[in-house]
Amino acid sequence: MLERVFLTDKLHDEKMYENLVEEIRSSPDYLNLLLESSEPWILQDINGFILDLSNSFADKLGYDPDNLRGRYLPTLRVIPLIQKSRLRIILDRLAEEPRPCTTIMEFMDADGRDVPLELSFRPLELSGQDFILVTARDASEKIHEVAELRKTISELRNTINGLYRQIDRNLQLITSIVNLQFPYIKDGDDYELLRDTQNRLRSIRKAYEKFIHEGSFESINFAGYARSIVSGILSTYSPEPGNVRLEMYFEDAEMGLDLAVPLGMILSELLSNSFRHAFAEGQDGKIRAVFRNKDDHYMLEVRDNGRGFPEDVDFENVDSLGLQLVRSLLNQIEAKVDYRLSPGTCFRIKVLKLADGE
């Protein structure tokens, strides 16, 4: 913490102020300061009173330097009202924790024009007393660069948004075409295949809808995405109340589409499989879906207490299109899977976060 030397009182006494400035200017440290400082500068006490400043700083604002010396910086007309509170906060922080810091602030010159300056605050000691050296650079170019960067980012966001909206519209069109086929399907197996295709398309669409709605253009919240998938599965299979109970617990996790979509489709396939095959008609049962966000990995678990798979079924070589898709998606995201096929089924999937680019 910087020691407050109560220069405020001294500055009210013109003679004491002159003596203090003379003492500081005669110190070797002050002479070194002049030699080292090629940029406009202000030397102030930790309360914000100006002890001295370079002519170049005053020239930037169109003021006589003598009219600024001995004045309290946060109250000067050269600083707009909206910036005064920011300056006081910076000075208070420097008094508590004397560390260099940099910020951009707008000053007002003698003609009332805004002058953006990049200010660097550096605590230093002169003649055994604590002061703050403020150096200034023209920030106009930097502000222009930031504005151009924001414009570029905005244009890129609009482009990405348009691209994903087009993808979403195309998926809607494909889904509509699939839906139009249902009245013409007579075979039960074909009907199930078409319904599975409908669920897969819905899972992908939900991801893009979340992506567009959340507007981050980098990631989506997987918990919300997973809940929307479950909602779609329930609307498809509509288990009778009291028969099959679904429990779900999804922890929040932000992830990119390259991981969220495959993981969401795996969730959809496993839930669909449990609803379709785990229980006989009218049988009571429970399905549980859990997603956990661990320190270095994600964990997705889908289990049921149903009849399980037949003993001769090999998950690694299964003929089911849905489970083949699950295996393919697991390989795509480089996930590890532990499973139990009977009694009941349980799939526990572990995905390292490095696979999501983290």
Keyword list:
358 residues, alpha+beta, Beta-Lactamase, Heat Shock Protein 90, 2 domains, 5-stranded mixed sheet
Give a count of the beta strands, DSSP E runs of length 2 or more: 12
Instruction: Determine the N-to-C terminus distance.
Output: 39 Å
Q: CATH fold name of the largest domain, please?
A: Heat Shock Protein 90
| Element string (H = helix, E = strand) | HHHEEHHEEEHHEHEEHEEHEE
Overall mean confidence score, pLDDT:
78
Characterise this structure.
Residues 27-71 form the PAS domain. Residues 263-355 form the Histidine kinase domain. By secondary structure, the chain is an alpha+beta fold. The protein folds into 2 domains: 7-138, 2-Layer Sandwich (Beta-Lactamase), CATH 3.30.450; 144-356, Heat Shock Protein 90 (2-Layer Sandwich), CATH 3.30.565. Helix content is 47%, strand content 22%. It has 10 helices and 12 strands. Strand 9 and strand 10 form a beta hairpin.
